[in-house]
Amino acid sequence: MHNIPPDIQAYHDKLSESEKIICEALALEIAIRLPKSESKVWHAHPVWFLDGNPITGYSKLKQGIRLMFWSGADFEEPGLLV
Fold first, then answer.
1. Hey, is 40 helix, strand or coil?
2. How far apart are CA 38 and CA 48, in angstroms?
3. How far are the Cα atoms of 38, 55, 70 from residue 76, in angstroms, in the given order?
4. Interatomic CA distance for residues 64 and 1, integer angstroms
5. Domain 6-69 adopts which CATH fold?
6. Contact 35, 9 (CB under 8 A)
7. pLDDT value, residue 74
8. CA 17, 1, 29, 75: dihedral to nearest 10 degrees?
9. Domain boundaries, given as residue ranges, for the chain
10. Residue 71 has what pLDDT?
């Protein structure tokens, strides 16, 4: 079983019950899929890193939970929005 780091658990504990369920499920899936990653609260939300590079994370928005991915690559696609 994967343990949620204390700083990420503290982030979850501030959420509503339904948001907490979603975020804990995301944390578990990310930990399973990226077993060599390191995780921490970074810029106020949970982020997973590979070799010091941010790979994925999530944050609470007014409309819900946003799952984010970073590739470290510039896709140079004009249609992609930040």
1. strand
2. 6
3. 28, 19, 14
4. 27
5. Aspartate Aminotransferase, domain 1 (3.90.1150)
6. no
7. 59
8. 130
9. 6-69
10. 73
**Strand spans (E) along 2-80:** 38-42, 45-50, 53-61, 64-69
Is this prediction's pTM over 0.85? no
Query: Would the pLDDT of 51 be above 60?
Result: yes
d(CA 48, CA 10): 16
- Tell me the CA end-to-end span of the chain in Å, nearest whole number: 34
The DSSP line for 2-17 is PPPPHHHHHHHHTS-H
What is residue 43's DSSP assignment? T
Q: Which among 66, 29, 25, 31 has a CA at the least distance from the CA of 48?
A: 31
Q: 3-class DSSP state for residue 76?
A: coil
Above 80 in pLDDT, residue 66? yes
Token couple for 37: 């990653």
Tokens of 44: 């106020």
